[in-house]
Amino acid sequence: MPNRRQFLELGLIASILPGLAAATERSPMWAPAASFPHPPLYKAIYDKSYAPALAYAAQMQRRGVAVHPIDGDITDVWFNDLALRWRESPVAIAGLTAPEALFCLEQLAWDHRMRVVSRALHAQRPLISWVIAPIVRT
Amino acid sequence: MTLPPGMSQRDFSAALRQLETAVGKEWVFSAPEDVALYRDAYSPFWDEEEERTASAAVAPDTVEQVQSVMRIANEHRIPIYPISTGRNLAYGGAAPVLSGSVVLDLKRMNRVLEVSEENAYALVEPGVSYFDLYRDIQDRGLKLMIDVPTPGWGSLIGNALDHGAGVTPMRDHWSTQCGMEVVLANGEVLRTGTGAMPNAKTWQQYKYGIGPYIDGIFSQSNFGVITKMGFWLLPEPEVVRALRVTAPRHDDVIKMVEIMSNLTYSGVIDSQFTLASPVLNGPRDAELEALAARPGGGTREEWDRYAESKDRPFWSARFTFYGPQPVVDARWEYARQRYSTIPGVQFEDGPTYRFPMSREQREQAPDKGMLGIPSLSNFTGRTPATPEVADGHMDFSVIVPMTGHDVLAALKVIGRDFAAAGVGARMGTISSFHLRTFILISSFPTMRADREFNRRVRAAYERAVKVTADNGWGQYRSHAAFMDLAVSKYSFNDDALSRFHTTLKDAVDPNGILSAGRYGIWPKDMRGSA
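Above: the input entities. Below: the structure tokens describing the complete assembly.
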């Protein structure tokens, strides 16, 4: 089970994610890093094919989070951005995408000791809201 | 928590502590949420008792650490399942064949050790992905092209070991590997080819060394852990140019393939070409189903009328040529001339790419695989228009002789079988993955939340293995859940080949710690009971 500090850290992430705090089906398997990076989110990924994702991106930008659009395919954001950033150190990202994009990022994040710490189905199928963050041993 | 077979929690915990000492505590994963990441994401047994799951995972960083893991595994008789990156998703992913195995995750061994532009080769560790090598070559501005499978996030070594393929003249990844380093089950390190010579100068240029050539026994097997492998690369070509050929009639495939094979064996075509039937691979309506169900699968006249009524050519082929411009143009034109002898044939000049390409040109090129550019673009199944798709798929890959008669037979037999199964199995194109045969890759969908559907898919998959084997078409690789079945079809002379494999297994891995059950090779105490 996550401890109180970890709950607080996840709450910190969730509090800046539009619509996530109330809707999150928290994975029982999450455990964000004890020394969570500041700012907590390196980037928010959104699928520009979906109207709710556009709104999500706008909200995230208003909250000071850098955003990156995809069109289903994560190749560009991963190869030209995340892979280079994560090579330096793991940093948290969030997103509102189709499940395939999350699946790819989840696999790639694990190579850098990061996991999906929160995922929630969005009202518009097949969108899913998620957070990937560094892990520590509990 | 899954445990290695026959092992107590206490003993396993003690072994894990030894593994932590060997590789570092943070690189031994036994928490359920960590081990879950090694599940087969597309498993046809998802959440069922038969789903193959790991007990833990360990991620070494060096050859010495791999050796330590082997010694600890032998001491405790722990089954170990090495993966390079574990992204062979359509064939079982990172999940072990034997539940309870400890996954040996080689992702941290991701160093590009050497790239020679002059002699066009690379030496890499198992965690190096196609993206990694591509980035290394691009960052250094080397005039080399890599060959990538789809998707491109897998390991060069892992893909080659499973006989995977791409598109370019270097597409047969096993045939382009040259020299490897192997940690044996007893922890000893050996190098193959000329790499067996201390200070060898040609490890990545001459495969055979001296004496028996053993590299092949480490592919699709469980005889060692590959920690280094060399690969031949393609000098960056001046030009890549494609050609599409269509032919209108059912029987045109005989001549089409005859020309294809001759051009291949003559060296005019040296990259992958694909053959598809817009009719047989296309939408299946009631009329087509009725034709396919007739004895013999319908006459050629009936098929020709059907194709004409749908305004579809019966056959479509695509070729790609690589090299200097005058050579590419000459080969392109020669292939076109040869196909001009088929009445009604039509040509489409495919895209032509000239090198060097800028970064922007590479990123915007639609034919990334053809250009050796890795991509994940095929993970885009769901769209706003199609929000519901299968959760995963199992690939079914059959080796078909390079003749038109065999192509026709394979498409009809497999198409009929898939239609009867009623699980939405999709027949793919026929491609020259390897040098002198066709591979017909088909796809069986899987659904995480529908066990009954998965049960029917598994039955259909098993039936497809039987039907194709009855026709003399074996599989070139197998999904991990069906390896025993796939290998059972290679049964000449009372399973002489399998018996030879087990003889080798007993010799090089007497405790049976490595990849139990991979490609039907089981340790002696598990044979017959798996």
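Note for the figure: The first helix of chain A runs from residue 4 to 15.
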